[in-house]
User: Fold this.
Amino acid sequence: MLPLLLILSLLSSPASSTNHAPTYTCQGGLANNGPLFGRITHGAAVTTILLANTTAAQASGFPRRLVGPEDRVVRTGRKGCEGPLWEIPVLADGRVFNVRGKGGRRGP
Assistant:
């Protein structure tokens, strides 16, 4: 089974959790109202990018900006997603996805 990559909008207005930390939620379905895949705080998302030492220029391609059909699908019926959407290497349980590790290929 391939790891789940959370799709986050780092520039959108994230939902506030009970501790008032901005939190991003990734859900299935065309209107992002399906099963919950995972949640991550804004701070954890930024930290994960820094810890993974990812840049768009790296061979891994992370973080990758979503443009095209998948961007439109993610935004359908979702409020608060005005900014660009980015794919970052974070698994649903919060662990960093090692794209260079064994079996670590990108994509679903």
